[in-house]
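Dear U.,

For the methods section draft, I wanted the exact inputs and outputs in one place so we can describe them consistently. I've listed the two proteins in the order they'll appear in the manuscript figures. Please don't edit the token lines directly; just add comments below if something needs changing.

First protein:
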Amino acid sequence: MKCLLWIILPYSSFLSFAAGHLWRYRRDRFQATDPDAETDRSERLGAMAFRLGIALVLLSRITIALTSKPDPPGAVYTATFAVKVVAVPLTILGALVLFGPSLVAGGPRTIVSPVDRFTLPMLTATALSSAAVGFAPDPDDTEYHSATMIFAWFRSLITLHPLPDTMVHTPLPYQIRALTLMVLMAIWPYTRLGGTFVAPVIRALDRLRNRPAAKTPIALAHNISRQRPGWRAARIIRRTVDDDASRGEENSSAAMDFSLTAGARPGGRS
């Protein structure tokens, strides 16, 4: 059971996370459920709130991981706790606004999968486990006890030297926290929230890739003439008038030459 929970399940979650993103990219490029300019304003605001909440949560967790030390709680602990108090409800609220109505009522525009219906309970469980870890008594009387347990175990997974015993001896709230994070990571790409971060990056790269190359002055002038038909018409009229004037000058000079030639003929009259 120890290897199943703290070695096999985490690496399976990593594999599902990577394979799911690749599958979604090849299937719909994360555009099926990503709010864009054509969607409702509420969905765009929900996506913005969700992204901001997740970013604040990650920022606070990274700060805890980098500043964990056996000292009494200080300013860093207070700041990260305040950030999490704001970020966690913001994340849940953004998720509810983003796809809550579709889960409740459904709709012809989207198909709600069983994984989507499982997402909100998992987000709620993740938020509650975070609160349980934050208010759990610290048996070692050290700051950021989760940093010495969950983060040490997670770093051991990244370095391919897993330490399952680190999590076996942790209190139950920390174990529940780690398991909920692993399950949420495994199902993330297959939910309606999977494109909230990746889809904007893909759209930005597509715009950069499809941006037209720098045009020459001739091409720019041609483009301007196409975009400003009135200016082009005025230019054509001016050119026609100039051509008529030059043609009239040529005709008058030709008539003058003819008259001079006729007067210079033998027997001609002055």
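Second protein (the one for the lower panel):
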Amino acid sequence: MADPTIYRYPRQIIRNPDDTITEVERALRQNGDVSIIVKVKDATGHHLVVYHLVYDSNGKLVHGPHEIPGSRDPTCTQPFPPGIGRQP
């Protein structure tokens, strides 16, 4: 199957007050959906948890947010980061 991604937005990096880093990667799909990957890392760049969500072309959340299976570090207790949405 071909890659459904037709455009990747520039990666957004958010430095949080608790010294963690949130990376947001958005990709526009052929069907108009926007796929978002949210990576929460510690100060050294170690992944703490990775989330995935999808918005349709109308801006409605149609999938997620859910954790990528096996992505959560056992020491991580953070919930999904607030303020993550469809637009870059």
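Candidate sentences for the figure legend, describing the second protein: The two ends are 27 Å apart (CA to CA). Residues 5-67 form one domain.

Thanks,
Y.
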